[in-house]
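Issue 218. Parser rejects a valid record. Input:
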Amino acid sequence: MKNRQRGISFIGILFVGGVLAFSGVIVAQVLPTLIEFQAITKAANKAAEGDTVPEVRAIFDRAGAIDDIKSISGKDLEVSKDGDKVTVSFAYNREIHIGGPAYLLLKYAGRSK
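Output the parser choked on:
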């Protein structure tokens, strides 16, 4: 009986390595947008403590300056009242250039608690 060698070929290693490298680059570009989304959500929750619309927007802008939020500002917020509670909602898009004409579009939306 002959023993056959088994395993992945050099071409297979290159293919798997290329897929992992591409995935790593995409994850490295998406991760900062997720961290920024969390900062925006935290700032929206803090801004919901305000009583008037200008006050809510000012609180959000101050929190945005601290957390380095660049995707959205206080003027982009939708401020409403549910009973006696202020609710702050937001929605925005982020595009990540992949290569050539290809982009990855991320749509973020949220509201204060």
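Fixed in the parser; the record now loads. The radius of gyration is 22 Å.
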